[in-house]
Specification:
The complex is a heterotrimer of chains A (397), B (112) and C (239). Chain A is built from ten helices and two strands. Chain A is mostly helical. Chain A has three domains: 137 residues, no CATH class; 150 residues, no CATH class; 40 residues, no CATH class. Helices cover 75% and strands 0% of the residues of chain B. Chain B is built from four helices and no strands. The longest helix of chain B has 30 residues. Classes of the chains: A mainly alpha (397), B mainly alpha (112), C mainly alpha (239). Chains in contact: A-B, A-C, B-C. Chains B and C meet through α1, α2, α3 and α4 of B and α1, α2, α4 and α7 of C. Bound molecules: protoporphyrin IX containing FE (HEM) and copper (II) ion. Protoporphyrin IX containing FE (HEM) binds next to α3, α5, α6 and α8 of chain A.
């Protein structure tokens, strides 16, 4: 984080940074401010457990015995936890937002739409996510007036989030889309995140959340948005950067197989959960037993989910195999197989040597998204290419 | 206030200024203590405690930690995030009031 | 986007006010002009630590405000009997003054450090450390006294069980910070004394040259510890 603030290379202003770096940077700031609450909650819980204090423990009867605790506030723990917990979900999401922006721009040969808006959206999401935490506590027995406040702030976050989704779509619009494996994963992310974001909007409203809370619907929501979507980006990122790290491409056919099984399989796993949740099936129960509201067919659906999950798990074996196999057998990648603009693709060696750049640090002259610039010789202009020396790019450092 | 600008060499300010700030910190602490010593109660007590606390904190941050001479970019970067803490404090005040209200309502019933 | 190299802005006079904020943040290489890497690190660490102490104090406030059992009166709990009369909160008051004194000596040390006055700087830092150690010693005395009177993290003779829990936890955390600060001060004072920063000697863990700025960075930490005490004093002892 201090690296981003105080140790950028020459020419790399904050507003020229790739969105990947912006996402990671903001997430780091948030981690710095959110983890204290988790830490404090954990310390107090330890004290309750080990020393017999009563921060969170009210009077308790356990197995017929009155415990020593009295007067603690369980709801305080929930507040501390979610003051950390909600920022944490965006700590996971923001780097994914950033990476996916770069993947889309690179593989659609198109500058990112609304770069400044994207940056400010990241910052706004980061800031707002510190004042929405109690949307996880609508049914906790907290002060009933909070519902209104936290529902409002929660829905406000949807605005910068939606801006980002629109901008991704507008980046693709009229783009020269290469359906490479990283791009497939990036597209899958957009769809999945949209899905999870919309169910988030449902849950953000108190009246909708009350019946849905603690059902499989919530499980579907957060797996879509925090499980599947960022994992799509992580895979996309690995397929994208593997050539820079190893000097070789990952196998394309195996990659496509991995993608389709993982993507469709994840939907087969998590999509039905929305339906189960609407039926009222509670989360966290290994076995439901007989109820008046969950039909027997739900068990069939659960079995289906298990099978789909096994298939997805199998696809990951293929991926691991691909990682290892391509290390020695993959196609030689060269320094910049995707024709990308950002600095990591311009290093003198691939894989980069110690210190990445050798003796001299690069100088940055432009933002990270000069794709398909009219009049330029190639459809991308690296960030460290100076403006005047258009013709010398072959000799670029 | 910004009479001695921070140079690249670091922060250099007259010794006298530090002594004055130091003196004020002692005086303010003495006031804080007397709030308790003279058993002031109610809103007056709260007002004085919080006021003196804020003044002392301000002096320490501004002069001893040299915040007054830093550039605004750093000042805002450090002072704005704690706003989130203030929101948290505010929320927890209302939450505690509510918890107390519920406990008094229901525990009384149980015991009564 | 314009494709020109930006000015690094180090040498130029920089604008003030909001324009300055915008200019600094959009400038090249560093967002905090005139602030070294180490100092920025310390500020950012302190910001995070602020959140930690805030969460402790918020939790304390919550348990205190929502308990139905009376809260022990700190004014009486921390009173000492001196010459036959009971003086309320006197120990805490003395501790407060000790810590403020240490902050003053620390500020002076920073000042003399930048004047490259090796001996005075080291002496003032040692004084600061001594005040710090005194503070911790008094805190140990306070803990002992309370434990003798029957205060435990899980109960106490006067009221809500959370009193002891919050007391030991918060002062314990603060005391740990002071202790770490004392060690930090001693280490740096030794280096100042040896003249490491006059010869720009290389540090143990790093390839960079030692500079007097480290005194200011130590100072930031120390003043922060004092700052936290200001809040603890007001919110725990005076409430
Ligand atoms: C428009 C954006 C979003 C809204 C309005 C939203 C709203 C909500 C709400 C109201 C809940 C509580 C449901 C309940 O327990 O009854 C919830 C749960 C959750 N959300 Fe979101 N969310 C959004 C985006 C995200 C994102 C981006 C992530 C992660 C990357 C995420 C991760 C989670 C997780 C992990 C839970 C489950 C917490 C638990 O275990 O109870 N959400 N969301
Ligand atoms: Cu949330």
């Amino acid at each position: 984080m201090v690296t981003v603030l105080q140790a950028r290379t020459r020419g790399m202003t904050l507003m020229r940074m790739p969105l990947t770096v912006w996402g990671i940077f903001t997430a780091t700031v948030m981690a710095l401010l959110a983890f204290p609450a988790l830490f404090v909650g954990a310390v107090m819980m330890l004290l309750d457990r080990l020393l017999g204090t009563s921060f969170f423990m009210p009077s308790l009867v356990e197995m017929g015995q009155h415990l020593q605790h009295s007067g603690g506030s369980p709801i305080l723990f929930q507040h501390l936890f979610w003051f950390f917990g909600h920022p944490e979900v965006y700590i996971v999401a923001l780097p994914a937002f950033g990476i996916v922006s770069d993947l889309i721009s690179t593989h659609a040969r198109r500058n990112i739409f609304g770069y400044r808006m994207m940056v400010w959206a990241i910052v706004a999401i980061g800031a707002l996510s510190f004042v929405v935490w109690a949307h996880h506590m609508y049914v906790s027995g907290m002060n009933p007036y909070f519902g209104f406040f936290f529902a409002t702030t929660t829905l406000i976050i949807a605005i910068p989030t939606a801006i980002k989704v629109y901008n991704w779509l507008l980046t693709l619009w009229h783009g020269d889309i290469h359906l490479t494996v990283p791009m497939l994963f990036a597209l899958a992310f957009i769809v999945t995140f949209l899905n999870g974001g919309l169910t988030g909007l449902f849950l953000g409203n108190v009246v909708v959340d009350v019946p849905l809370s603690d059902t499989m619907f919530v499980v579907a929501h957060f797996h879509m948005v925090m499980g599947v979507a960022p994992i799509m980006v992580i895979f996309g990122g690995i397929y994208h950067w593997y050539p820079k790290i190893t000097g070789r491409m990952l196998n394309e056919a195996l990659g496509r197989f991995h993608f389709w099984v993982t993507f469709l399989g994840a939907y087969a796993v998590f999509f039905p959960m929305h339906y189960l949740g609407l039926l009222g099936m509670p989360r966290r129960y290994p076995e439901i037993g007989e109820t008046s509201f969950v039909p027997d067919s739900a068990a069939t659906l659960n079995a289906f989910i298990s099978v789909a999950a096994l298939a997805v798990g199998f696809a990951q074996m293929v991926f691991l195999f691909n990682l290892i196999w391509s290390l020695s057998r993959g196609r030689q990648a060269g320094g910049n197989p995707w024709n990308a603009t950002t600095l990591e693709w311009q290093t003198p060696e691939t894989p980069p040597g110690h210190g990445n750049w050798g003796k001299e640090l690069p100088v940055v002259y432009r933002w990270a998204y000069d794709y398909s610039v009219p009049g330029a010789e190639r459809d991308f202009v690296p960030q460290n290419q100076p403006p005047a020396r258009r013709a010398t790019w072959e000799a670029a450092p | 206030m910004a009479h001695a600008a921070a140079s690249a060499e670091g922060q250099q300010h007259p010794v006298k200024l530090y002594l004055v700030v130091w003196g004020w910190l002692f005086v303010l602490s003495a006031f804080s203590y007397s709030v308790d010593y003279f058993h002031l109660q109610g809103y007056l007590r709260w007002f004085l405690i919080l006021l003196l606390m804020a003044l002392k904190a301000g002096l320490i941050v501004a002069f001893f930690m040299h915040m007054a001479w830093e550039r605004l970019a750093l000042i805002y970067a450090i002072l704005i995030p704690p706003v989130a803490v203030l929101v948290f404090v505010g929320i927890m005040v209302f939450e505690s009031d509510y918890t107390l209200f519920m406990r008094e309502t229901f525990f009384r019933l149980g015991q009564g | 986007m314009d494709a020109t190299p930006t000015d690094t802005g180090e040498a130029l006079a920089r604008p003030a006010g909001w324009r300055g904020v915008a200019a600094d943040w959009s400038s090249d290489q560093r967002a905090f002009k005139n602030v070294s890497w180490g100092k920025a690190m310390m500020w950012i660490f302190l910001l995070s630590d602020t959140f930690i102490f805030s969460c402790f104090l918020i939790s304390y406030m919550t348990v205190r405000m929502s308990t139905t059992v009376p809260w022990p009166n700190p004014s009486e709990v921390f009173a000492l009997t001196i010459g036959g009369t009971s003086v309320p909160l006197i120990l805490i008051a003395i501790m407060t003054f000790v810590l403020i004194s240490s902050s003053g000596t620390m500020a002076m040390a920073v000042n003399f450090g930048y004047r490259r006055d090796r001996v005075k700087t080291a002496a003032l830092m040692l004084m600061t450390a001594a005040f710090g150690a005194t503070f911790v010693g008094m805190q140990a005395f306070e803990w002992t006294k309370l434990i003798h009177e029957g205060v435990r993290p899980w109960e106490n003779p006067w009221g809500a069980a959370q009193f002891g829990a919050a007391f030991f936890m918060i002062t314990g955390f603060h005391g740990t910070h002071v202790t770490i600060g004392v060690i930090f001060l001693l280490v740096i004072a030794r280096k100042v004394w040896r003249g490491d920063f006059d010869q720009e000697k290389q540090g143990f863990f790093t390839s960079r040259k030692g500079r007097y700025e480290i005194v200011e960075i130590t100072g930031l930490y120390w003043h922060f510890v004092d700052l936290v005490w200001v809040f603890i004093f007001a919110l725990f002892y005076l409430w």
